[in-house]
Amino acid sequence: MFLTLLCVGVILLVIEMMIPGFGVFGISGLACLLGALFLYLGATGEAAMIVGALLFFTVVLGVWFFKKGPHSRLGKQITLGFRSTTDKGYTTNGDLRDLVGKQGVAETPLRPSGRIIIDDEPVDAISRGEFYEAGTPVRVIAVEGRRIVVEKEEV
After folding, report:
1. Residue 112 has pLDDT above 80, yes or no
2. Which domains does the chain have, with CATH numbers?
3. What is the pTM of this model?
């Protein structure tokens, strides 16, 4: 039984490494390995205490790693800390901030999202909750990343 649990635990951990997901295979593999250790140690009360202490320290170490680990010296070496931000010169597919204030026409109904035409170019946009019919003149009031917010242009 010990060897069966050991082999199943290792196989489940390998599956978790190959197909990461919800952690079901990893947790099951860890449980099998702890069960194998319990059986190897003789399945006594002392063995249960050893396995329980090992499980406790594993959980504490895991919580520490996810909270503090990326900021530690070792964590900085094994995690990606570089950020591609606009203040470092990186932009998305296109900077749309120059659209603020421009006027356009709703190509499709905005309920509240839809498509507008600005400078003969179709652009996906969203209103502030209002519904506008196709053909309604609109003006861009804000750009948040790729999200273009418009309001009805008073004519």
Report:
1. yes
2. 2-78 (no CATH), 97-152 (2.40.50.140)
3. 0.45
